[in-house]
């Protein structure tokens, strides 16, 4: 069948209309399935925030970013707000990405990405701006501090958002018992935090390093630290060290007076038995050292070392006993004479005991009357019974028993 030219033209026109209608319907169905996708962003104050809006399927529909005040920042690739900090990163039918540099706290809020379908579809992205805490400072320290005085050190930092955390350390060891205070700043966005360390000054704290450490998520695991070196003044602590633990006559001895205090005590005072050193020729003082040469019994006594500084004074004593080297030598071995004497006494006592025992046995060897013999009942003992039996009962019948 052959169509006329006019009919053929009308046929092609009808096909074009049908294709166009089908395309329009597909576009409408695609538009209904589209939805913009965004993500929340967190950035440190002064940094750069990147806002990205994506659409998986797009049929040339426009995308737009607007700020929390609903001001348009970018419409597709066209900049709408005159702000040099805002720049286009990428613009396509599937993505609209922008950046905001030098972010301030006022930039925080909810940003909107709009997809201009019918109806318009939107997605929200919240921009969080972290306030960086200022470098901390320690106040309340006056140098020097006297031992026993109460110290109150305060560490303070402002501008943190959210509120920063403060920790105290003394020589790298954390101190837990501290006070913490948080206050809102005038801008009602950031915080000022402070912490107080309260303790009594001790001589062991002299030279200690006290540090205040500020931790915050904006610092990228690098805390801010303020340090203070303590200076504690205290009375001297005195100790005497001897060079000879067993001094003998004729030897020498060196007594060293160790004094520790702040300010450093200088010099020290040596005395003997409450008075001056009796023999300056043999007893020589050089700074903290007392040297005594050619020791003898007259050097026995109590030696005292005293140290003082502007805070106070302190002293300690050493009792010197000079030993006789000859007496010591006599006691080095066993005393054989003493041992021999003891042995002789033991032998003598043993011999005497044996003799007495022999005499006793010899005396009782023989006969004696039993209790059956006449006169034995009234006798107090065996010897008396025998005597009574032999003297007054001569004719009586004797019953004898023998023992050896």
CA-based gyration radius: 56 Å
Structural class: alpha+beta
Mean pLDDT: 84
List low-pLDDT spans.
1-31, 367-374, 392-404
Strand content: 35-45%
Number of helices: 4
The count of DSSP E runs of length 2 or more, i.e. the number of strands, is: 27
Approximate helicity band? 10-25%
Main beta sheet, described?
A: 6 strands, mixed
| Head-to-tail CA distance between termini | 174 Å
Strands side by side in the biggest sheet: 1-9-8-3-4-5
Q: What is the 3D form?
A: elongated
Walk me through what this model shows.
This protein is of the alpha+beta class. 18% of the residues lie in helices and 40% in strands. The strands form seven sheets. Strands 1-9-8-3-4-5 form a six-stranded mixed beta sheet, with no helix packed on it. Strands 11-19-20-23-22 form a five-stranded mixed beta sheet, with no helix packed on it. The protein has a four-stranded antiparallel beta sheet with strand order 10-12-16-15, with no helix packed on it. β4 (72-75) and β5 form a beta hairpin. Residues 1-31, 367-374 and 392-404 have low confidence and may be disordered.
Q: Could you write a compact summary of the structure shown?
A:
The protein is α+β, with helices and mostly antiparallel strands.
What tags apply to this protein structure?
alpha+beta, 4 helices, 27 strands, 18% helix, elongated, disordered C terminus
SSE blueprint and pairings:
Blueprint: H1 5-33, E1 41-44, E2 49-54, E3 63-66, E4 72-75, E5 78-79, E6 86-91, E7 95-100, E8 109-115, E9 121-130, E10 137-139, E11 145-146, E12 150-160, E13 165-170, E14 173-175, E15 179-184, E16 191-200, E17 209-215, E18 224-229, E19 232-242, E20 253-262, E21 268-272, E22 283-286, E23 289-292, E24 301-309, E25 312-320, H2 325-330, H3 336-363, E26 366-369, H4 382-392, E27 400-403
Parallel strand pairs: 1-9, 11-19
Antiparallel strand pairs: 2-7, 3-4, 3-8, 4-5, 6-7, 8-9, 10-12, 12-16, 13-14, 13-17, 15-16, 17-18, 19-20, 20-23, 21-24, 22-23, 24-25, 26-27
């Amino acid at each position: 069948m052959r169509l006329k030219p006019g009919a053929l033209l009308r046929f092609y026109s009808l096909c074009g209309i049908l294709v166009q209608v089908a395309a329009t319907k597909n576009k409408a169905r695609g538009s209904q399935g589209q939805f913009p996708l965004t993500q929340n962003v967190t950035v440190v104050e002064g940094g750069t925030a990147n806002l990205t809006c994506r659409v998986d399927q797009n049929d040339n529909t426009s995308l737009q970013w607007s700020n929390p005040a609903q001001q348009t920042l970018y419409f597709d690739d066209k900049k709408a707000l005159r702000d040099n900090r805002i720049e286009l990163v990428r613009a396509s039918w599937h993505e609209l990405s922008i950046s905001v540099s030098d972010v301030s706290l006022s930039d925080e809020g909810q940003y909107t990405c709009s997809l201009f379908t019918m109806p318009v579809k939107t997605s929200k992205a919240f921009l969080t701006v972290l306030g960086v805490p200022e470098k901390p400072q320690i106040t309340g320290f006056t140098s020097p501090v006297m031992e026993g005085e109460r110290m109150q050190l305060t560490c303070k930092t402002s501008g943190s958002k959210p509120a920063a955390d403060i920790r105290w350390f003394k020589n790298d060891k954390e101190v837990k018992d501290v006070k913490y205070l948080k206050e809102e700043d005038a801008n009602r966005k950031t915080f000022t935090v402070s912490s107080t360390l309260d303790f009594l000054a001790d001589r062991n704290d002299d030279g200690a390093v006290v540090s205040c450490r500020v931790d915050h998520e904006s610092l990228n695991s690098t805390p801010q630290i303020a340090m203070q070196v303590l200076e504690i003044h205290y009375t001297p602590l005195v100790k005497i060290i001897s060079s000879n633990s067993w001094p003998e006559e004729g030897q020498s001895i060196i007594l060293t007076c160790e004094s520790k205090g702040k300010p450093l005590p200088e010099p020290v005072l040596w005395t003997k038995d409450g008075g001056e050193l009796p023999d300056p020729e043999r007893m020589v003082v050089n700074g903290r050292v007392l040297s005594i040469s050619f020791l003898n019994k007259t050097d026995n006594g109590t030696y005292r070392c005293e140290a003082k500084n502007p805070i106070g004074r302190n002293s300690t004593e050493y009792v010197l006993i000079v030993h006789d080297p000859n007496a010591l030598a006599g006691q080095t071995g066993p005393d054989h004479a003493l041992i021999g004497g003891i042995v002789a006494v033991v032998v003598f006592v043993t011999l005497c005991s044996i003799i007495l025992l022999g005499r006793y046995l010899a005396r009782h060897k023989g006969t004696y009357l039993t209790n059956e013999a006449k006169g034995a009942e009234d006798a107090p003992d065996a010897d008396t019974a025998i005597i009574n039996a032999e003297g007054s009962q001569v004719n009586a019948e004797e019953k004898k028993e023998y023992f050896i």
